[in-house]
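Practice problem: predict the structure.
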Amino acid sequence: MAAKQKPEKTKSIAGKASRGRESLSFDLLYQLSYMSVIASAGVPRDLIFQKSSRIPCSTADYFQKIESTCRNLKYDYATACRIVGEDAKDEPIKALLLRFSSSLVSGEPEADFLTREAAVQAEAYENEYNRKLETLKMWTDAYVSLILSAVLVIVMGIVSTMVWKTDTAFIVGLALTALATTFLGLYLIYLMSPREFVALRQPSSVEQRLINKYFKIAVAAALTLGVLPMLVSTQWGWSLVVMATAVMPLGIVATLDDRKISRRDMEVGPLLRSLGGVAGAMGTTVKEAVAQIDLKAINVLRHEVMTLYRRLHAGISTHISWRRFIEESGSELIKRSVGMFCDAIDLGGEPEKAGYHASLFAEKIALLRARRRTVAFPFHWLCLAMHGAIAALLTFVTEVMTIFGGMVASAQKSMPSISGSAAASSVFGFNFSGLVLMNRLVLPLLLALTLTNALAPTIAEGGSSYKLLFNLALTAAVTGISLAVLPSLAQAIFKSIQM
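Answer:
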């Protein structure tokens, strides 16, 4: 008996399916946008489901189940959508599949249903994204307030050592309260930030490959060189500066790459729409349309488009040429939008319709991310300025209190042993043990603030996680300079007073 032949898997420019951290609403928007694009090509129903089950998003799993149900149990697609939809745990997916089942039963064209659902999901995703941005904006303000409150608690603990004898548990409790407040603010920023992939998972652009190549070397150099100043002077200040210097170049590269990706994402929508329009108007292929578009209207993607044109006209496969275009851009959005455009063309769709629908998806996501940057950009530099003020304040106040406490201790020792000395000693009494403990706790607190004030803007901005290197280098450098310079400045001030 002959074995059943498995359906042939067609290649997709979009690549393998991804899993994980992307939000369901974004995956669902991409799924519906992709399906509406290929459905507009007029392909058979079974091919729509086959292609939709292999795209790179988590919602494709449901369409894999539908495809498997139809293939193994010989159900029609309407029944399979209903069965899988009733079993789905995610409510948006469940509602979509049940509506899709009803639409298929009624005989409505798939293209009409999918285009309508894609438009509705795009509006729902935009509303959800904007709500998150409004909440994120409020919590970025709250984060600053929480950090300043934590610093106020620490300063109160330092000053309290010169007023009364404080218990060790009280001082440790203040430090733990400050740490808890700081990490609470960071968690709230993480909770309210939209989660999305901006760069490709696999390093592909020049900047991404450079970061991937030298990341481990830079981290090892930072740790190795950072220990040397500690061995020489037993101070953390210059160690942090050296560590920041070691990782700063990669942080700058990651930041520049993220900005390039953002600008490329803004241009890919108009590019696809232009390609589809030119190909439709001239009645030619997309390959010929690439040669006809006006490169003066393309700024950021001009080099990539010219390279694409050379590859196509050199006889290189269209599939390989577009894949290299995606990889050189380094953008997940370009991967998805170009993927749906190319797949629709490969299936015989009209270039004009394919370019229009793909550009709608790309421009919608790019504009929403631009709004996110308007919220995160001022918060980024506010965190840096706030961290500089906090690091300087804590370091300077702690050092001043330590020097002043030492001067009081010396004055107490030099007092004559007379009856009034006890009263004077009580007036100038310091809790020296508490002051020493608080002085030791300031360094861990500063290190924690260095980390959180680098993480908070990185999470709020989104994008490549390697941007943390840039923010961490800035906050570490500020902390290191404060620890290295301000103690000497405080000592110089007291020496000038004594003179």
